[in-house]
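Translate structure to sequence.
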C-alpha cells in the first residue's frame, strides 16, 4: 500500500502548482531515446583507459611507455611528465580563494590504490586496455596510513606535504587537513547545570552514491582551439571553471554542454581527475575522446565520508537539553574534495537540530591513503543525524520520557536562528511544520505500540518488532546576506515566448533524474498562464546560458526556481503591455490565465472583446515588429528556507538470522507548497531507500593492510533494490507556506535522506532493547547485540 496526501490548501486558481504533472523526459526514458553522455559517439572518437596504482602509497621512480605506444591504434599517452605542475581544486560551489587545492592531473606519487599513473587514448577500448597493460612502471612503495586514527598519530606516514588555499600554501605537519570548531554558550557550564549527562560514540560508514549511470566524459577539440565537453556533471559552469583552472587555459576555450544524468546524489558534485585527463588527451591527439569509467572505477572515485562521532549531552530531568558536545573524526581519503565543507556542515546540522543554549563542535578532517570521499546527498547531515537522533532516544529512555515529547520540547522553531551550511551561513526559520509532522506521524504509525514492543519477550521470540523515529532538517540552498562569501549561491534564467504561444526556458541547472526542470516548467507556466506542457526546457551549454552554481543543497526549486519565476514575471509584464496595446486597455486591467490575456474587473464591462490569446499576442508582436518577447534574470539568494522531515519506521528482527525487515514507513515532510507531488514523493521514496541502505547494508570496505577496496561492484556492495523496498509506505505533508520561496515552496531533496537511518536505528533499538551504535546494522551486529555470537 502506498498512500500519498497532497499538501492541503492548494489555491483553486493554480493551474499548475500542486498538480501531478508527469516529467517531460519520462516518455523519452521509457522509449530509450533520451541521450546520456555515454550514448555520444563522434567521428574519429578515441577511447581512454587509465593505468592506476596497485599501491596505496608509492612514488613513481620511472615509467616506460614505449611498448604501449607501439600497439596499433594507440594515439596518445599522458603521464605525470605531461601534467600541469600546479595544483587544482575540485569543488563547484566555492570561489577559488576558499577552495583547497591538493589535486594534480597526474603526479609521480600515488596516494591510494586506484590513483592515476597514466592514461591512454586509442582507436578502441580494447587497444587502450592493451596499452595500459604494456606500460612499465617502477615504484618505490611508501608506508601507508589507512586508518584515520592511525593517520593522526605522531610518526604516521605523511600523505600531503602542502595544500593550497587560494594562493596561500599550507605546509602540513601530520594528516589533519583542517580542524573545524563551532560553539555557542559555555558547554562546561551547561554540563554543570544538567541533571543527567550521557556520552556515546557512533561510527557511520563509507557509503557509495550508486548512481545507475557511470561517470563519462566526451571532449571534442575544435579547429579554433576550443574544447566542446559533455560530462556527467552536476554543474556545467562549475566544470568549465575548474577544468580551465586545472589545465591553465582561459574559460572561453571551454564550452560544457548540459546533459541529463542517470542519477548523481553528489557523486558528480565535484570535478574528478577524469575530466582534465580527457581534455589533455583531446588536445594532445587533436581528436575527440571518450572516457567512461568501469563500475569498479566509478565506485572508487567518490563516496560519503565515513566518520567516528562522540556525542555528549546534558539534560534536565524534565527533558530540557542544556548542553550538547560533538567531536567528529572525518575521513576524507587521499584528497580534500569536500572534506572540510562536509565537516563544517556536520557542525551546522548538529547545532541546529535542537534548542540547546550551550553547544560545542570539533571536527577533524583527516587524510588517509584510501579512495577520496566527496559530496553525498545530505552533505554531512546523515553523519550528524544518526548520532543526534539515536542520542535523543537514549536520553528519553533514561529519563522515562516519550521520544516524541522529548523532540517536541526541544526542537528549533519559527524565529530561531540556525546554521544553514556550516559556521558562516546563519539564517532564521520563517515557516515550520515540525510539530504537525511529528504528532501526525506518531498517530499514523500507531506510536503507542512502541511501549508494547519494549516489553516483548526477547528470550523466546523468533521475531522481534520495533518502532522508531528519526527527524531531520536541511536548508534550501546556501543563500546569505553577505555579497562576498565563501560559498556561491546565484542562478540565472532566460525565457523566450515563441510565435505559437509556447515559451522556451533556458537554465544551466542540471536535471539529475529527479525532474527538477519539470518543476521549473510548472512555475513558469503558472506565471504566464500557460500549461506546463507549453514550456520547452531547452538543452543548453555554458556559451549560451546564464550562470547557475550547481544542482545541490536542495536549491533547485527554492533558488533556481525562484529566479525562473522572477524571469517569467518580466515576460508576463511584456505580454500584458502588448495585450494592452491590442485590446486598448491598461495592462493593470489584464490577467493571464488559460493561455489568454483577459480583461478583468470593471474595465471589461460593455466591451465586445475581453481577451486575446497569448499566441495572438506573440504573432502580432512579430507582424508589427515589436520585437521578441523575452527576458533574463540573474539573482543571488539571500536567504535559505529550512525544510523538515520525520520518518516513523516499523521493523521486524529475526533473532535466529539477525535479518531486519522494514515493514512500514510513515514519512512526514514540511516542504512548504508542493509544486509537483509526483516529484516530491519520488524524492522521499528514493531518499528513504538510500537511508535504509546506509542503516542496514552499505559500506564500501577498504582492506586495512593492502589499501584495496574489497567490494567495488554490485555483486559485493549491496544496496536497497525494489524488492527490498517497503510496500507499506505512507507520505503526508505539513500545511506550511514559505513566503521567500516560489509560490511558497521549499526544498526536499537532501532532507528526504537525512532521517531514515536514524529512524531504522531507533526502531531496531526498540526491538532489541539495546542501541547498536555502529552502522550498518548487519546481521552479525544484531546477533552480537542479542548475545548469540
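Result:
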Amino acid at each position: 500500500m502506498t498512500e500519498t496526501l497532497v499538501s492541503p490548501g492548494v489555491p483553486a486558481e493554480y493551474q499548475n502548482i500542486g498538480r501531478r504533472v508527469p516529467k517531460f523526459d519520462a516518455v523519452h526514458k521509457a522509449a530509450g531515446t533520451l541521450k546520456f553522455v555515454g550514448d555520444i559517439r563522434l567521428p574519429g572518437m578515441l577511447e581512454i583507459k587509465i593505468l592506476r596504482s596497485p599501491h596505496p602509497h608509492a612514488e613513481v621512480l620511472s615509467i616506460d611507455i614505449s611498448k604501449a605506444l607501439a600497439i596499433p591504434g594507440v594515439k596518445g599517452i599522458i603521464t605525470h611528465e605531461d601534467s600541469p605542475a600546479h595544483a587544482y581544486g575540485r569543488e563547484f560551489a566555492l570561489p577559488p580563494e576558499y577552495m583547497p587545492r591538493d589535486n594534480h592531473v597526474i603526479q609521480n606519487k600515488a596516494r591510494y590504490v586506484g590513483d592515476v599513473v597514466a592514461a591512454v587514448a586509442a582507436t578502441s577500448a580494447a587497444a587502450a586496455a592493451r596499452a595500459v597493460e604494456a606500460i612499465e612502471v617502477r615504484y618505490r612503495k611508501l608506508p601507508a596510513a589507512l586508518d584515520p586514527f592511525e593517520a593522526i598519530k605522531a610518526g604516521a606516514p605523511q600523505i600531503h606535504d602542502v595544500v593550497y588555499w587560494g594562493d596561500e600554501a599550507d605546509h602540513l605537519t601530520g594528516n589533519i587537513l583542517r580542524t573545524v570548531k563551532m560553539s555557542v554558550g559555555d558547554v562546561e557550564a551547561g554540563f554543570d547545570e544538567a541533571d543527567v549527562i550521557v556520552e556515546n560514540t557512533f561510527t557511520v560508514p563509507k557509503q557509495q552514491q550508486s548512481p545507475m549511470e557511470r561517470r563519462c566524459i566526451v571532449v571534442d577539440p575544435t579547429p579554433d582551439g576550443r574544447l566542446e565537453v559533455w560530462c556527467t556533471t552536476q554543474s556545467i559552469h562549475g566544470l568549465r571553471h575548474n577544468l580551465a583552472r586545472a589545465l591553465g587555459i582561459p574559460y572561453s576555450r571551454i564550452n560544457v554542454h548540459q546533459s541529463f544524468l542517470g542519477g548523481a546524489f553528489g557523486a558528480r558534485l565535484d570535478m574528478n581527475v577524469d575530466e582534465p585527463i580527457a581534455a589533455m588527451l583531446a588536445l594532445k591527439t587533436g581528436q575527440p575522446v571518450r572516457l567512461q569509467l568501469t563500475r569498479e572505477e566509478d565506485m572508487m572515485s567518490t563516496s560519503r565520508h565515513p566518520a567516528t562521532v562522540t556525542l555528549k549531552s546534558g539534560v534536565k530531568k524534565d527533558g530540557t537539553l542544556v548542553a550538547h558536545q560533538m567531536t567528529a573524526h572525518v575521513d576524507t581519503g587521499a584528497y580534500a574534495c569536500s572534506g572540510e565543507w562536509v565537516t563544517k556542515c556536520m557542525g551546522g546540522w548538529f547545532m541546529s537540530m535542537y534548542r540547546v543554549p550551550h553547544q560545542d563542535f570539533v571536527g577533524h578532517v583527516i587524510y588517509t591513503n584510501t579512495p577520496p570521499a566527496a559530496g553525498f546527498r545530505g552533505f554531512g547531515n546523515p553523519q550528524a543525524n544518526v548520532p543526534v537522533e539515536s542520542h535523543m532516544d537514549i536520553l528519553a529512555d533514561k529519563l522515562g520520557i516519550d521520544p516524541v515529547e522529548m523532540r517536541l520540547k526541544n526542537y528549533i522553531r519559527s524565529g530561531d536562528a540556525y546554521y544553514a551550511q556550516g559556521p558562516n551561513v546563519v539564517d532564521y526559520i520563517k515557516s515550520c511544520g515540525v510539530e504537525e509532522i511529528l504528532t501526525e506521524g506518531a498517530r499514523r504509525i500507531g506510536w503507542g505500540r512502541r511501549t508494547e514492543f519494549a516489553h516483548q519477550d526477547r528470550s523466546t521470540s523468533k521475531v522481534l518488532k520495533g518502532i522508531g523515529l528519526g527527524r531531520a532538517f536541511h536548508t534550501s540552498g546556501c543563500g546569505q546576506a553577505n555579497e562576498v562569501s565563501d560559498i556561491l549561491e546565484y542562478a540565472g534564467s532566460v525565457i523566450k515566448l515563441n510565435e505559437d504561444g509556447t515559451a522556451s526556458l533556458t537554465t544551466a541547472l542540471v536535471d539529475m533524474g529527479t525532474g527538477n526542470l519539470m518543476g521549473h516548467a510548472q512555475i513558469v507556466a503558472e506565471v504566464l498562464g500557460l500549461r506546463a506542457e507549453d514550456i520547452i526546457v531547452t538543452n543548453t551549454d555554458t556559451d549560451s546560458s546564464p550562470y547557475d552554481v550547481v544542482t545541490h543543497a536542495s536549491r533547485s526549486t527554492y533558488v533556481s526556481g525562484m529566479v525562473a519565476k522572477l524571469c517569467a514575471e518580466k515576460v508576463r509584464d511584456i505580454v500584458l503591455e502588448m495585450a494592452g496595446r491590442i485590446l486598448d486597455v491598461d495592462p493593470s486591467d489584464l490577467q493571464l490565465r488559460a493561455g489568454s490575456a483577459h480583461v478583468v474587473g470593471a474595465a471589461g464591462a460593455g466591451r465586445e472583446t475581453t481577451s486575446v490569446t497569448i499566441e495572438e499576442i506573440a504573432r502580432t508582436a512579430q507582424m508589427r515588429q515589436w520585437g521578441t518577447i523575452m527576458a533574463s534574470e540573474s539573482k543571488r539568494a539571500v536567504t535559505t528556507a529550512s525544510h523538515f522531515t520525520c520518518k516513523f519506521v516499523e521493523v521486524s528482527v529475526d533473532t535466529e538470522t539477525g535479518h531486519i525487515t522494514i515493514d512500514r514507513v510513515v514519512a512526514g515532510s514540511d516542504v512548504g507548497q508542493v509544486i509537483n507531488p509526483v516529484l516530491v514523493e519520488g524524492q522521499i521514496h528514493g531518499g528513504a531507500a538510500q537511508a535504509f541502505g546506509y542503516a542496514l547494508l552499505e559500506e564500501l570496505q577498504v582492506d586495512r593492510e593492502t589499501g584495496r577496496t574489497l567490494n567495488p561492484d554490485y555483486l559485493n556492495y549491496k544496496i536497497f533494490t525494489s524488492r527490498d523496498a517497503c510496500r507499506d509506505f505512507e507520505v503526508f505533508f505539513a500545511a506550511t507556506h514559505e513566503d521567500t520561496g516560489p509560490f511558497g515552496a521549499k526544498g526536499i531533496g537532501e532532507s528526504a535522506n537525512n532521517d531514515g537511518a536514524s529512524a531504522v536505528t531507533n526502531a531496531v533499538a526498540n526491538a532489541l532493547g539495546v542501541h547498536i551504535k555502529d552502522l550498518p546494522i548487519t546481521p552479525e551486529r544484531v546477533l552480537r547485540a542479542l548475545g548469540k555470537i
